[in-house]
Amino acid sequence: MMAGLYLWLVYGNGLAFALSVLLEMVLFFEAVVRPEQFSEEDGVSWLLQPRWAFGLLAAIFVGEVFMGAALEVVLQPALFPSRIANLALSRVPRDVLYRTFYNGFWFLATVTGSTWFLGMMGIEMGALVVFKLRETRSLETRVRLALLLGSYGAFAVFFPSTYYPAVFPHAPSGTAVPFLGWSMGIGSGPVAPGVFSAILLTYVTSGVLVVLFGRRAICSVFCTAPLMFQGTTVDAMKGFNRSSPMARRYLSSRLSGLYTVTAGIVLVSLAAGSVLSYLDQIGRLQVTFLGADPGVFLYGLYFSVVWYLLFVSIPYAGNYNCVTMGWCYTGLIAGALSRVGFFSLRVKDREVCRRCTTLD
């Protein structure tokens, strides 16, 4: 329905919206008439069956992407069209494929990084975290959940898109501000000579937090991922980390071969993208990927496209797969710094971990 609404707002034709409403009504009445399809299989709730869980997450994500795009069209009609890549399609098949991929990639990356999409996701997924907070008895966990809610609201929505434009309209760009302006480190902006100090202070700040409080200070509080992963519904899907064949290949107390390969590819691409971005900024090279600075392209690829695709694939890739699979370069750097921190996990009895039913 949200896709139809977006097409209606952009092109002024309400036919797609009307058809999408009818389709949703058909699906609703089918669920009412045939409730047996939601019955348990082998004692497992339908929500924890991979195909149903994947379909649910995929449908919700598609709806939220177009809802975010619709909000941008309505609330920022002058800015949003100029931010969306829209290469005209030609009659050459090879050119059509490239331009379709180009338009689709930047539409998804632009929408998932937009203010209203992040705000909407924060409200929806934040509500699930509030439910988790209410049912959690551990004081430490309750404090951490409260902190991650505040961090998401402040660092993902308020500071980058409200605070600077509204309070300091003539202030330097966000890339001049350490940590807040470089939320995911390198890739949050082009690697220009004038931002070296901001990048350095960003990693120093992150490193100090990791050393003092452990890797969770980044991966479970300041990052936007914990808000998505730690709400009641998604948190209940942790069982896929052990039931999914792909997720099990990454689930180990030691670094698996796949984890090492994934992490290596990500870190090498980050290093190469940073160098190319710097050379492009100083004019030594003129190189772009899909029309964007190499570092900005990597940021969009990993955190605006791959992250959400793997989030939808939790039933097959496992929960918190940005950490377990090793493809988040910010988490990889935080993990390396945590080895010199004050916190370390010592297991006295491994059988306690094996018998754990909650996977906490």
UniProtKB/TrEMBL annotation:
<protein>
    <submittedName>
        <fullName>4Fe-4S ferredoxin iron-sulfur binding domain-containing protein</fullName>
    </submittedName>
</protein>
<dbReference type="InterPro" id="IPR051684">
    <property type="entry name" value="Electron_Trans/Redox"/>
</dbReference>
<keyword id="KW-0479">Metal-binding</keyword>
<dbReference type="GO" id="GO:0051539">
    <property type="term" value="F:4 iron, 4 sulfur cluster binding"/>
</dbReference>
<keyword id="KW-1133">Transmembrane helix</keyword>
<dbReference type="GO" id="GO:0005886">
    <property type="term" value="C:plasma membrane"/>
</dbReference>
<feature type="transmembrane region" description="Helical">
    <location>
        <begin position="324"/>
        <end position="345"/>
    </location>
</feature>
<feature type="transmembrane region" description="Helical">
    <location>
        <begin position="6"/>
        <end position="32"/>
    </location>
</feature>
<keyword id="KW-0408">Iron</keyword>
<feature type="transmembrane region" description="Helical">
    <location>
        <begin position="52"/>
        <end position="71"/>
    </location>
</feature>
<feature type="transmembrane region" description="Helical">
    <location>
        <begin position="191"/>
        <end position="212"/>
    </location>
</feature>
<keyword id="KW-0249">Electron transport</keyword>
<dbReference type="GO" id="GO:0046872">
    <property type="term" value="F:metal ion binding"/>
</dbReference>
<keyword id="KW-0411">Iron-sulfur</keyword>
<feature type="transmembrane region" description="Helical">
    <location>
        <begin position="257"/>
        <end position="276"/>
    </location>
</feature>
<feature type="transmembrane region" description="Helical">
    <location>
        <begin position="296"/>
        <end position="318"/>
    </location>
</feature>
<keyword id="KW-0472">Membrane</keyword>
<feature type="transmembrane region" description="Helical">
    <location>
        <begin position="105"/>
        <end position="131"/>
    </location>
</feature>
<keyword id="KW-0813">Transport</keyword>
<feature type="transmembrane region" description="Helical">
    <location>
        <begin position="219"/>
        <end position="237"/>
    </location>
</feature>
<feature type="transmembrane region" description="Helical">
    <location>
        <begin position="143"/>
        <end position="164"/>
    </location>
</feature>
<keyword id="KW-0812">Transmembrane</keyword>
<keyword id="KW-0004">4Fe-4S</keyword>
